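TL;DR need structure tokens for one chain.
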Amino acid sequence: MKQIKKSDLNLIIAVIALLLTAAAISAAIVYVNRTPEVYPSDREAVYEAKQTRAKEKCFAAYAPAQVINDKSEYTTPYGTFELIESVIDINEYLTLNPTVPDPELCRLYITESGDDETAAEIMMQIKAISDSVCDGCTDDYSKAYALAMWTGQNIAYDHDAAHNSADLSIISLEAILNNGMKTTCGGFANFYSALCHSQGIYCLYLKGGSSSEGYSRAQLAEAPANHTWNAVALDGQWYYVDCTWISDLGVENGIVSGGDNIKPFYALFGFGEMSIEHRIDRSEHICYGG
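>> reply
TL;DR here they are.
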């Protein structure tokens, strides 16, 4: 075998190094020239693109609805109060501009396991409850009202879990069904949203501040994000539902109490009345599948 001279070996190594450098430069040029439509560098653009796809899939049943606000003060079960301008502005914007969580997160609202088969079984139970409650209802308004009153009077507020109120082990549909129909406000709103979904009613899951726990209606703009409730689009208008406030049914130290102080007002009330006692910080349309 002919022995390679040292000078020839150095030349071969140099040629290989040159070829590798050229390949790296070419790859870099191709990467830089990729169109931003395919590989956007702006995280906000990526998020907006995902939201557009999600809304196209999940908003299929959505009919545009209006926020009705034609007075400067409104009456609730606790009296007549003036609106706070900053609150009504954000409430209107977030009602009309909800986000859609990723499908994986949506499944966690159904079951903490995120398992597709388990989620499907749970939604079958939700559908059965929803159909039973809406039996005899003739339109979406009567269905939305019946579902709100049923949720408010058949689920108990879990005072023992209030310190951890947003945990999926408390607010998921599976947890509520398996834990004796008790939960916190996040669970009330989740359950109602799922019931509406089963009837084809477009429903939002709202999170924000409320005039409770030491904060007056005049302090609503500064109140902490301590509550969850819903909005539904019916006949071209937005209505609001607070199933937690419909009834005083609760569980504390394992003992069930209350349930007699019913407030039907909080089953489908208007934007102005809602904005007296609620400030929206986040609005979501949860896709439960199906």
